[in-house]
Design brief:
The protein has 170 residues and is of the alpha/beta class. It has five helices and ten strands, in the order ββαβαββαβαββαββ.
Length: 170
Amino acid sequence: MTASQIDGEIIATLVVGSDGSTTKDGSSRGVSSSADRTRFLARRRSVDAILIGGNTARTEPYHKTPVPVVVVSTSMANALADNRQAYWWSASPSVAIERARRLFGPTILIEAGQSIIFELISLNMIDRLELSVTPVAGGEDRVDVKELLSHFTSVSSESEGETVFYTATR
């Protein structure tokens, strides 16, 4: 899928364990699966820019990205100084999305934590949610999957191995 095929969408992606954990040992890698990782990497190559929060920038591997990555954070300590495609903005997620669309293109992928994702859902700014649920349990920062999906009008799912992939749209 190319950016032109998903032109103009704001897409959020999130991986959680079977108990709703969004991290394990402080990273989303702890709740990810190989099937999730494959889809995750393919998805990020089909967008114009990625938006993350400061905590995600400090704890996840964003030192090399296929497209520009925008970090929204009030702390201006740039944890991605070695990524020439990283932009560190002190802005709200909604303002950062509009600015990223003007600078990089209309299709933005949100790879942030649940607080930014829920903020953007509450503002009705997420067009599509790609949610992966893996069999991992015992992590931290839990989210209620049913409650998260309830914000969308259409939800479909498919399984690959032990990972269930949900696509939710407005």
